[in-house]
Design a protein that fits this description.
Order of helices and strands: HHEHEHHHEHEEE
Strand content: 5-15%
Number of helices: 7
Radius of gyration: 21 Å
Distance between the termini: 50 Å
Amino acid sequence: MSDIEPQDHAEPCSDSPAIMTSHLMDLLLPEKRPDTFRIVNLTEKSNIRFMQLLQGKDVAEEIDVFYTPAYAAGEVVVDSLISNVLLSQTYYKPDIVSIIKALCGMPGPLFQCDAAAEDISTLSTSCMHAPHLTSMPMPDAFVGSTFSVLFDALLLDYGILAVGLFRAPDEEMGNDLPFVYANPVPSLVLRATDTIYVIAAH
């Protein structure tokens, strides 16, 4: 591509190598382990609609990319979306930094001591015990129950905060791909194939 070519012509093509590589992997590796996942990093969010062309699931331009199967399944991330949250929104909503630190398992205000008294061992211990985002399989006792029952039991009995579910492909539900369901409605009925996203300490 020429250096003098207008920038607006370059942007739509910037993700072509990543998208093509993803399609080639689908063709060359049609059978994959159910516990393996591929994440494609794109520059432009509008290009998410090209992620599933091989499956005949082209997405119309007027449909928001957040509702595409590839994005809901966590198969694609977009730099511009991440930078918008981290750089733009933090000025107006500084608490976003605390939330991101908690999701990454970084020590927050409750785990920080006097900076002058901290050493590397203290920081390491704080990081090990800081709440962080992780996942756990669905306990058999909660299969068929509602999300509100699971939420209350984990929080009150174990101090674990359930924040979402990872739902497996299901013919009855009509989803060919797994998807992330953040902040589920309290009445959602839980399935044995669900994985629970939780914020918990070690």
